[in-house]
Amino acid sequence: MSGFVRALRIVLICLVVFAFSALAVTGVFAVVGEGEAESEIQEAETALSSVYVAVLEAERSGADVSGLLVGLNSGGNFLAEAQVLFRNGDFDGAVYYADLSVESVEGLMDEAGQLKTLALAEHEEKSFATVAGSGVAVVVIVLASVVGWRLLKRRYLAKVLEMRPEVVKG
Amino acid sequence: MNLEEYRTVFVVSGLILCLVASAPTLSLYVPFPSGERFSELWVLGPGHMAEDYPFNVSAGESYLVYVGVGNHLGSSAYYVAYVKFRNQTGTLPNATAGTPSPLPSLYEYRVFVEDGETWEGALRFSFSGFSFFENQCLVEDFVVNDVAFNVGAVASWDEENNGFYYQVFIELWIYSVESDSFQYHNRFVSIWLNMTG
Q1: Domain segments of chain A: what residues?
Q2: For the purposes of burial, counting CB atoms within 10 Å of the CB of B110, is it exposed (0-12), middle (13-18) or buried (19 or more)?
Q3: Is-contact A9 A33, C-beta < 8 A?
């Protein structure tokens, strides 16, 4: 009888230890899973917003950013999916999509920087051509006006000098 | 015309021509006034038209509407459209105060829209776990684009309009570079739904 009680006690102790360790393990995993997912999502958010700021700067410099926006939209779709899964408690899925989001915008920052540099150089070139063109046009107009004025004045004076007083009979 | 008048004509026409010639250069440095800057948010029925919106809904059926965003802000914009669900007592966004609804967002769309462009996305939704008791209706799950959200929303019988009414609404948020965060853009659209079982 005492042997049965001892065996029962051992089984009970084992069960309690197993139950506690199972709870501890799942609890720890759940916390790590959620925290990890949150940080991955945060990372994806930062990646997307940084690329967006770079794209905006390129756009303000006059670059055509349509191609970059396609990549950003792809990243945005994945990030939205990650957020939705995170809210629903699917942390594995959230991490998966957050990673995809980061991957899909990789390289876009450099591309935006290159486009910005190109656009600035192009803008500078265009500005120079415009300013030079305007300057030349203004100089030509001023010179033409001065020459034209002198010619007109000469003709006018010559015409006046050629005039003879008329004698009017009273 | 005497010589003095000729000179005036020459000076004035010369100045006008100089101004015309320098206009391209001026346009590089003088900003021209632009039109009103704003964003659009809309919801359309299954035929991409403002008609045939789902209204009488039941469990197991799937419904389709389209959410759209238009950008007229003068540069590309980063938007988030949050999909929320409420019963008659849930709080809507406050247009006067410019504050969003405190209800949790369920689904979301993240889109980058170029200036002068629009974006449209499908919003397919259904419900599961309907139950009716006395004068109340309980919706357990709201499914959006194949993702189920446990909402547990109870609606009381609306005697005036004869139905159990819920509302799906979409809020528009925009990313602000200055604050490095999303801000409520003070726009929302919604559709009313009557749960019929």
Answers
A1: 7-162
A2: buried
A3: no
How close A98 gets to chain B, by Cα (Å)? 13
User: Which of A42, A49, A86, A97 should be substituted to probe chain B, the one whose Cβ sees the most B Cβ atoms within 10 Å?
Assistant: A49
Instruction: Please answer yes or no on whether A88 and B148 come within 8 Å at the CB atom.
Output: yes
Asked if B112 lies within 8 A of A52 by C-beta distance, the reply is yes
Distance CA B183, CA B190 (A): 19
Judged by CB atoms closer than 8 Å, whether chains meet at B28 and A131 is answered as yes
Closest by Cβ to A79, choosing from B11, B14, B110: B110
Taking only residues 6 to 35 of chain B, the set having a beta carbon closer than 8 angstroms to any beta carbon of chain A reads 6-7, 10-11, 13-14, 17-18, 21-25, 28
ipTM of the complex: 0.86
Q: Round to whole Å and give the CA distance between B85 and B56.
A: 16
Which position has the higher pLDDT, B106 or B14?
B106
Q: For residue A87, which amino acid is it?
A: R
Percent of chain B clearing pLDDT 90 (strictly above): 75
Q: Which residues of A75-112 are buried (b: 16+ CB within 10 A; e: fewer)?
A: bbbbbbbbbbbbbbebbebbbbbbebbbebbeebbebb
Q: At a CB cut-off of 8 Å and minimum separation 6, what does A123 contact?
A: A61, A62
Pairwise pLDDT comparison (B129 vs A97), residue with the higher score:
A97
Mean pLDDT, rounded, of chain B: 93
Q: Quick one: closest CA in A to B119, which residue?
A: A73
Whether the predicted pLDDT of B34 surpasses 90:
no
State the maximum Cα–Cα separation within chain A, in Å, rounded to a whole number. 168
**Per-residue DSSP letter, B102:** S
Residue B6 identity (one-letter amino acid): Y
**Which residues in chain B have Cβ-Cβ distances shorter than 8 Å to A83?**
108
Residues of B in contact with A73 (CB under 8 A): 111-112
Select the CATH number that applies to the domain covering B38-195 from these four: 3.30.2140.20, 1.10.630.10, 2.60.40.10, 3.40.50.2000.
2.60.40.10
